[in-house]
User: Fold this.
Amino acid sequence: MEALISILLTFTTLAGGLASQIDFIFNPQKYNAIELDTSAVPAPVEEPSEDSFIQLSQVKMHYRIYGSGKTPLVLIHGNGGSVNSLKEAASYLANDYTVYLPESRCHGQSSDPGEISYELMATDLKEFIEAMGLEKPVIMGHSDGGINAITLAAMYPDIPGAIISTGANSHPKTFKLYFPLGVAVKNLFKPDKLNDMMLTLPDFTPEYLSRITCPAYIVGGQFDIMWISDTVYIHENIKGSDMAIVKGASHSTYMSQDGKKAYVLATQWLNEKGI
Assistant:
């Protein structure tokens, strides 16, 4: 019976996902379809002002800081990434914000305490923010970093001033099928706890998402690795949140692959919100 229910849920998700992709083509305004004009983006801040480590309760975390703007912005990389993954985005955002670029546990030069989950990473981020003395920072994350931003805001709603979550999924079942299949095959030959996490987590229920009280911007690409319907689901269950789908974008083309677009995405929304 459980197997049958799982199959039915998979087909329901697939049908809903396909329907949302088709509907986007004919009704892009319904999904706040946007294009990111980078013609007026300022020159990047090339070098970080700090490249260091900080000892948290479970993790020795590596981080960089770019810029010296009044508002702090914590920029979170995705699964398997490092401070270099969003280096370009950080260098452009540094024109307007002080950008903190931490490496998650089990990633880059940060230590590996043996366990990883989005909840554990959210707690690490909370400790990092408190240790750095940041007040109501903007939390901007890509992919797993977007999931981390949502998780942090749900677990510790008083910490962020706002979140920008890009390329996040609410559950592994909402991936387009090619992606988890590829991860699973890769995991057969080289098991990795980072892959295990992507294949089993997160599980964002409506109740969980309703805990988020700060301004939230939920963003996906038109051709992202999860269905557009999942971006809509996350947005609809975070009260007062905003949503956008980037026209023609894949999972990374407007974030880790193009720092200028990441800058435009963040600054336009934050300026609209007066943050």
In short: Residues 71 and 97 are 5 Å apart (CA to CA).
